[in-house]
Amino acid sequence: MTVTEHRPGQAAPVGPGPRPARLRAGPLLAAGAGLAGAALVAVLVGPVRLAPGAVLVELAGRLPLVHTHSGLSQQETAILWELRLPRVVLGGLVGAMLALAGAAYQGVFRNPLADPYLLGAAAGAGLGATLAIAYGPDTAAWPVDLLPMAAFAGAVAGVGAAYALGRSGGTRSTTTLILSGVAVAAFLTAIQTYVQQRQSETLREVYGWILGRLTTTGWREVALVLPYAIASTVVILLHRRLLDVLAVGDDEARSLGVRAARVRLVVVAAATLATAAAVAVSGLIGFVGIIVPHTIRLLVGSSHRLLAPLSLVAGAAFLILADLAARTVMAPAELPIGVVTAFVGAPFFALVLRGSRQVP
Amino acid sequence: MTAVELKRVSVALDGRPVLRELSLRIPGGSRLGLIGPNGSGKTTLLRAIAGLVGHQGEIRLGATAAASLSRQELARRIALVPQNPSVPAGFTVTDYVLLGRNPWIPHLGTESRRDLEIVGSVLGQLDLTGLAARRLDSLSGGERQRAVLARALAQQAPVLLLDEPTTGLDVGHQQQVLELVDSLRDDLELTVVSAMHDLTLAGQFADHLVLLDGGRVAAAGPARAVLTERVISQHYHASVRVLEDPGGGIVVIPVRPGSRAGDPGAPARPAERQVAT
Q1: Which of A119, A137, B167, B258 has its CA 20 to 30 A from that of A107?
Q2: Which of A248, A124, A120 is CA-nearest to residue A191?
Q3: Nearest residue of B to residue A239 by CA position?
């Protein structure tokens, strides 16, 4: 047997070739399995316990060409389809959007502390929701609620204003953009506080909205979020390779052939839509957009090829579990989900940071 | 054949002129060393060629006007290694070098097998195959510089611009990087333009030197013609001694102004001679 040694300068044996992050399927499969597990547990647990086997059979029965009899009572079937599933699906969608938007914002701003609410989305949505609560007409008879619409519009307007302000100075640096986000947020929050003080009887409702909660009336909220979720997911995932190029900074990205400012605008627009849709149905749920991408980054590295899809899946699983905790810990009372995400998320994050030697 | 030609190129940054009607022809396959004191415009010249700063005048790449090329087309012809490349932590060497393939990958597309093969062979050329799966933040300075160079080579651009490629490296790694660039230039028939601070290294590395001062070409030619004590003291305001290296090159040594130690035959300025004798 001969041992060949590779010497410097000599052409290296090519062999299996380098493996880019996109081709590592293991973490994605693991995250997918985690999401499925989280969703199943969340569907089963509640005031009425559902039998796992029967639920799986019932779910399989909705697939085309499958005919089964699950043995669930009519009441149990209604609980599954009208209460548990919509809430689990909505939680998954909101978590996925917040985590994906967080990863996208952190990518385009090259700042690991950027979160989906950074550019005025939170303040805008807060003002929109407050205005709807304080001055909105009674919409009980309307086919759609005013509150989510107002929050959505507020979030989009907030980010739009921050972007316009950030570019008006002529410079297009990310720092300018972040600073104008801070300015816009402060301004909008000031108006919101003023409105709240004027209409103090709405304080409690506004406060409840700001803490974040998932409430569903059948599949209506899911239907509201889904189109935006799909559109922004497609756009961000299509740009994940370009997000990697932006990681070396605008200047170098340009020398690698990327029109950095344009890519950033497209990704910010998509991430803002995702955030606004999530905020519209769930209020302000903090922490998800930072903690999920950050944890993923510590585990698998910073390449968005893997970071973006993994954040999507892990964010969904995280929020489903957080919502499960929110509605079971103090049952029959419900904790605001934002309290749960921060309460569980912060120590978990600290553990991950401690356990990882690598700096993201 | 001319690889890059600048015709009366002027650049102003924040209203301050940095390059002033600079004209320069860079022959294909040459090794051009760009020298000059701090602020003389070396980096700006490289950035202008790479299309990163707006300029007046004309820059041609071969027969094509650079201004007529899209950013992507430009990146296929010019690869730039900046002075302080950002090395995003948490990226593996492979993922980082793959960024260099961006000009060849469709906007929203994914790299092809061929792109991966090219990354693989560049990693081999730069002796990085064993580090392919390592994270950039775990590399030493020399390894990191090789990774940055690998990213530029993965662009497969015929013109390679290096801005101070040896900054922050010890003398061994400086030589290693320059030897590497040299051998790659021969293998890949690259045109290499390198801004350099170390005049001795510049003299060894480049077959042609261009000295910039105040945004203009102050001197140009082979190392022996440009690196003279008179030229260096005039443009760098430095006291140096230029010595013959028995190996055939020349060595530029800074000396303390007024000091005559070490070489009794050195030409000193008249005033100093009076003081000394």
Answers
A1: B167
A2: A124
A3: B108
Beta bridge partners of B19: B11
Greatest C-alpha distance within chain B: 75
- In which order are the strands placed within the sheet that holds B191-195? B78-81, B159-163, B191-195, B31-35, B208-213, B216-221
Interface residue A20 vs chain B (CB under 8 A): yes
Do A360 and B90 lie within an 8 Å CB cutoff?
Answer: yes
CB contact under 8 A, A242 and B107: yes
pLDDT single digits (tens) B79-91: 999 998 988 888 9
Task: State the DSSP string of A262-321.
Answer: HHHHHHHHHHHHHHHHHHHHH----SHHHHHHHHHHHHH-S-HHHHHHHHHHHHHHHHHH
Residue among A266, A261, A257, A259 at smallest CA distance from A239 = A266
Token pair of B77, please?
Answer: 């012809």
Q: How far is CA A162 from the centre of its chain?
A: 21
Helix (H) or strand (E) holding B251: strand B250-254
- Token pair in block for residue A210: 């700001």
Give the closest-approach CA distance of B23 to chain A in angstroms. Answer: 23
A260-282 and A121-135 helices, crossing angle to 10°: 30
DSSP annotation of A6: P
pLDDT digits (tens, 9 = 90+) for B32-70: 999 999 999 999 999 999 999 999 999 999 889 999 999
CA distance B108 to B113: 16
> What three-state secondary structure class fits B263?
coil
Pairwise CA distance, residues A229 & A31, whole Å:
19
The predicted complex's ipTM stands at 0.86
Tokens of B264: 């009794």
Q: Is A167 in a helix, a strand, or coil?
A: helix
Token code pair at residue B83: 């002075």
Strand partners, B35: B211
